[in-house]
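Technical annex, item 7. During the second reporting period the consortium partners agreed on a shared format for inverse folding records so that results from different sites could be compared directly. Each record opens with the tokenized structure and is followed by the designed sequence. A conforming record, contributed by the partner at site C, is shown below for reference.
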């Protein structure tokens, strides 16, 4: 009696989305550092706020703020969406484009907060989340046709953010969400235009 091992299938874990998994790990490490340092690491690296332009950390914070989170709940809320949407987008657009979307979202939201909201300390990956949400809704764009799903997501999402910004008093930066969505939309339209 001979054994045929070629028919046996084995399950393996694949490192399917290096940019998104790397981003998630950096966010997790920054949260753990924040807990261990009682908030000092978020203040130093993982949040953006008005500070001296001669301080080199100011420029690091323009990008570092997207990795910082105020609590486990804040982290889990953002990372769930990133792990859900990110791998699909990374497969479609590639590693380099995903790094660029994340970096541009970080820089634009960081600069706007730095310039226009000097007394607000901004941190978290929600701008990246909303860039991914709008980008994923536009992936079906082709031949000059705008997907109805993109229009619906944009209207519902922007409307909800404007409503929350005007009528709700909370610690959430709706402007960061809107800017992230704009970055994701811009990239999606630009990328689809290049491919046509």
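Designed sequence (site C submission):
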């Amino acid at each position: 009696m001979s054994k045929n091992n070629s028919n046996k299938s084995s399950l393996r874990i694949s490192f399917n989305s290096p940019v998104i998994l790397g981003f998630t790990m950096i966010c997790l490490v920054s949260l753990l550092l924040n807990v261990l340092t009682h908030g000092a690491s978020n203040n130093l690296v993982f949040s953006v706020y008005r500070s001296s332009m001669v301080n080199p950390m100011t420029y690091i914070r323009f990008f570092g703020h997207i990795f910082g989170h105020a609590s486990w709940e804040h982290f889990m809320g953002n990372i769930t969406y990133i792990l859900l949407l990110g791998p699909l987008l990374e497969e479609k657009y590639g590693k380099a484009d995903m790094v660029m979307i994340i970096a541009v979202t970080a820089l634009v939201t960081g600069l706007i907060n730095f310039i226009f909201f000097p007394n607000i300390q901004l941190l978290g990956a929600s701008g990246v989340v909303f860039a991914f949400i709008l980008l994923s809704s536009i992936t079906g764009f082709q031949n000059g046709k705008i997907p109805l799903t993109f229009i619906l997501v944009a209207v519902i999402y922007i409307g909800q953010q404007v409503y929350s910004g005007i009528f709700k008093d909370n610690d959430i930066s709706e402007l960061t969400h809107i800017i992230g969505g704009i970055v994701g939309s811009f990239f999606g339209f630009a990328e689809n235009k290049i491919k046509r």
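The chain has one domain: 16-195. The domain at 16-195 is CATH 1.20.1540.10 (Rhomboid-like fold). All partners now use this format for quarterly exchanges.
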